[in-house]
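MODEL INPUT / OUTPUT PAIR
PAIR INDEX: 1
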Amino acid sequence: MNTHYRLISQLDSSFQQLVASLQKLQQQIQKEAAPCWMLGADSTQASHELLAASLLDLWYLDGQDGRVTRSYPGMVVCSEKVWQLLGETNQAKVGFSYALDQIRKEMPDELPEARKRLAERHAALHAHLTDQGLARLHLKQAWRQIPGCDRPLEQLRFSWYSSGRSIRRITVQEAEYRLLQMDTEADHIQIQLKKLAGLARDEPLAQVQKQAPLMRANLFFQNARPGEPSRKAINMAMPLFILDPGQSRQLPPFNLPPAQPPETRNRAKRSDKRLEEEPFLPSIRVYKYTTFDTNT
């Protein structure tokens, strides 16, 4: 068996296993009518429908930014059977991610075609997705893990978290390297390289990445034993599965956050703002500092 056939076959098999495990998980939740709550749903039925949609949402919407993933904050109380299926699903996601990684390493040029074939080979999904205009697989949404909690919870507190942006200091040499990875024949890249050449080689720069708002959940545990944390904060891109071996079938106490993140940040601008307002190298989101002391 040649490498090409082996890797493609492995990818096909891992994707089919992932879809099958997601469907089994969703069907078991539906069979048990597991208690759940999903942000934005106005009824129990709507929560169950949104939960099912979240598990099987592996696809791009028309015009969706490839760097953006859709989030589904929520929670579901699950039995030991559902918990077992959750573990199998997350393991299938790991297997799918591994198969993709092998193609990236050994046949990177084949990845776009391989991703297209995955949707086409799964006939039932492809027919539905073609009608919806969703025939392109979103890799990050396919392999992202579904969170679970196997400790009794006293309560959950949801809140929108907006960190605004991350700032990483880089050197002039690093900035030059990143620009040289782009189309150096393009006028705008040439202009930025010339601007960069005019700087002192030891001048620090800042690369800025804007971050989208995300939902955070603070989990408060019941009866924490000595040495165990009494709380834990997690990002809620996917619903939280809460193991309930006692079958109480009750959601833990929780607050109701706004359905949408705040439009503006509440935090005031820093009075000691250190970065210039406009990017110095827009193509790689690099800014200059407002002051630069060569003696530091």
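PAIR INDEX: 2
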Amino acid sequence: MHAPDTSQDRASSRLHAALGTLDSAMIELDEVQKKFDAVSGRIDTLLVNTTKSPSANLGANLRSLNARSEMLRKALDRARRNFASARKGYHQASQAYASKHEQHTDALALAQVELAEAERCKGALSRSISAWFDPKDLARGTQDVQTLKGHEGSFGYLPINPARFFDLLILIERVLALDPDYDDPVLRHRPVRFLDVGCGTGRNLALARTGNVLKTQALAGFDIDATRIAEGKAAFGLDAELSVADAMTYDYAGHDVIFSFRPFHDPDMMQRYESHLVASMQQAAYLIAVLPEDLVRFPELSCVSGAHGIWKKTG
């Protein structure tokens, strides 16, 4: 992508300045013209009245008005020159702005094409990553993930689109970089402890580790499905990071950023899970909640991005 072009902004500023100069010149010209016309009118009136009734002061009055008229004539000439110069400057600035605007329009069209191509590439990479990381999940039918066998109300593992996952990591990294609670003297934010709830095989942790978008001190993930955890340890080398645990009883206090992709399809279970999660989260921790049930009911949570389901525990 191209760097932002500020030349159009500069051309716009010059155009506005030229317009202001032209406006001032027009006002000046109008004011001087009115004064000149008024003096000329007074001279004409004096001559007419004197013809009807001669006055001894005629010569003195005419000399005074003629001197005033000559001064205004010179001022009027200057005002006309200033107006002509301002009009020329405005014309040049207008042409320059039109040229820059055309260039900007062309650049914007090119950027839109590049963005569309980047989105296509992003989608292709995401599909490839899913095929490599989640071959078994892609082969499973919808019915297989609706309910985890032996755990009614719980979803089977639902792998989030890798591109969307990275979008969320990029967003939370930006948020952390602006948060004084996560300040670091060198890095954009201090390294965080990241947790994936219902992590399945732990592929999100593998993506977070290799992608290096978010600076992490520790990665952790748990799932109630021991088979998935065993698969992940074998596939991704996440032996120390993965564990078998229940989301309803897990202690979330040791983590700075918690990723939760709706582990329960039963609404009541989801509400109980959210209550326990929020209660055990540490102060200033962030929650990335994809498809939450009802986080608005917790006054201790502040919504950072409703569109992306990002919350911070502030109360």
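PAIR 2 NOTE: Residues 58-133 form the longest helix (76 residues).
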